[in-house]
């Protein structure tokens, strides 16, 4: 389905380059991918990825699918640049936090829009992504977005755009929360005498293993937690410390705050 389309990626920073690498890794022909970036030099991009580098307007003209992978603040300028080359045959997929389909539509007037939210684990093909298909998109458009995001991880479809901000607060920003957890667990390990490298490996693998258990068993996390905590054992003492410090409430409020910020970015 993607093989006969020209895919243009605007912005090849952290997320744009992860998507580009994912597409190349599943065998999309380099000739069918175009990229642009306002700051990363053409030579650097062409040498690193072997794909054609164009300015934004030319990229928009030549692409069937345009992926916007710039910061939210840069979206309006990008859209102004590509405006003359957008007609209803173009599918525009934005990964920008907060930017609503209607905002893009109001600038470009034409085109079909899909708003998506992947996360940084796209770099290792373990992203948790959500997609929202705007009005006038087709079933094929949805399948295309699923296929593109699918090259970097798991994808869910969201049917109400309002919840894209919630996705952003949870899984879009979420890896950063978990990196702090991993760092803190490793620090704890170092405090009780482990070597830093061992502590970090054990902490990261612990998070990965716990996540796999939730995903593969389908059990509620509380049930899995109970499987770890033996009566009068070590785990319940650790958990009691987390409860004293309101750790669970902290994570809940982190998601709420990031969701609100996503809403602000879009207003
Ligand atoms: N970093 C993350 O974990 C995630 C980021 N996002 C979203 O992805 C988007 C990109 O984020 P990152 O890749 O982290 O940012 P980044 O800063 O690494 O990359 C953005 C790229 O856009 C380029 N750029 C800026 N203005 C441009 C223009 N007018 N034309 C062409 N290129 C331009 C920059 O030179 C840069 O290379 C943002 O909108 C962000 O909200 C979504 C999910 C996760
Ligand atoms: O922090 C941000 O705004 C972006 C969106 C989700 C993850 N990073």
UniProtKB/TrEMBL annotation:
Its EC number is 1.5.1.2. It is found in: Cytoplasm. It catalyses: L-proline + NAD(+) = (S)-1-pyrroline-5-carboxylate + NADH + 2 H(+); L-proline + NADP(+) = (S)-1-pyrroline-5-carboxylate + NADPH + 2 H(+). GO terms for biological process: L-proline biosynthetic process. One of its GO terms (cellular component) is cytoplasm. Pathway: Amino-acid biosynthesis; L-proline biosynthesis; L-proline from L-glutamate 5-semialdehyde: step 1/1. NADP(+) binds at residues 10-15, 69-72. It is an enzyme of class 1 (oxidoreductase). The keyword Amino-acid biosynthesis applies. Keywords: Amino-acid biosynthesis, Cytoplasm, NADP, Oxidoreductase, Proline biosynthesis. GO terms for molecular function: pyrroline-5-carboxylate reductase activity. Residues 7-98 form the Pyrroline-5-carboxylate reductase catalytic N-terminal domain. InterPro entries: 6-PGluconate_DH-like_C_sf, NAD(P)-bd_dom_sf, P5C_Rdtase_cat_N, P5CR-like_CS, P5CR_dimer, Pyrroline-COOH_reductase. NADPH binds at residue 56. Its main location: cytoplasm. Residues 161-265 form the Pyrroline-5-carboxylate reductase dimerisation domain. Belongs to the pyrroline-5-carboxylate reductase family. HAMAP family: P5C_reductase. PANTHER family: PYRROLINE-5-CARBOXYLATE REDUCTASE, PYRROLINE-5-CARBOXYLATE REDUCTASE 3. Catalyzes the reduction of 1-pyrroline-5-carboxylate (PCA) to L-proline. This is Pyrroline-5-carboxylate reductase.
């Amino acid at each position: 389905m993607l093989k006969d389309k020209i895919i243009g990626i605007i912005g090849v920073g952290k997320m744009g380059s992860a998507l580009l690498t994912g597409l190349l890794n599943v065998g999309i022909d380099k000739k069918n991918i175009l990229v642009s970036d306002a700051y990363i030099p053409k030579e650097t991009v062409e040498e690193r990825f072997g794909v054609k580098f164009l300015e934004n307007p030319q990229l928009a003209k030549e692409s069937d699918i345009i992926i916007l992978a710039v910061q939210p603040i840069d979206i309006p300028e990008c859209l102004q640049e590509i405006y003359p080359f957008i007609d209803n045959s173009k599918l525009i997929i934005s990964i920008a936090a907060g930017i609503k389909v209607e905002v893009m539509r109001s600038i470009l007037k034409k085109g079909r829009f899909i708003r998506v939210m992947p996360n940084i684990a796209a770099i290792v093909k373990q992203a948790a992504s959500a997609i929202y298909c705007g009005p006038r998109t087709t079933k094929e458009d949805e399948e295309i977005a699923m296929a593109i995001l699918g090259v970097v991880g798991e994808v869910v479809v969201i049917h109400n755009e309002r919840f894209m901000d919630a996705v952003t607060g949870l899984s879009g920003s979420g890896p950063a929360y978990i990196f702090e957890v991993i760092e803190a667990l490793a620090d704890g390990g170092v405090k009780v005498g482990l070597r830093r490298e061992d502590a970090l490996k054990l902490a990261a693998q612990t998070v990965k293993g716990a996540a796999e258990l939730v995903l593969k068993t389908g059990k509620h996390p509380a049930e899995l937690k109970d499987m770890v905590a033996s009566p009068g054992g070590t785990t319940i003492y650790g958990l009691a410390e987390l409860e004293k410090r309101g750790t669970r409430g902290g994570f809940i409020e982190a998601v709420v705050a990031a969701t609100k910020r996503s809403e602000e970015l879009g207003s």
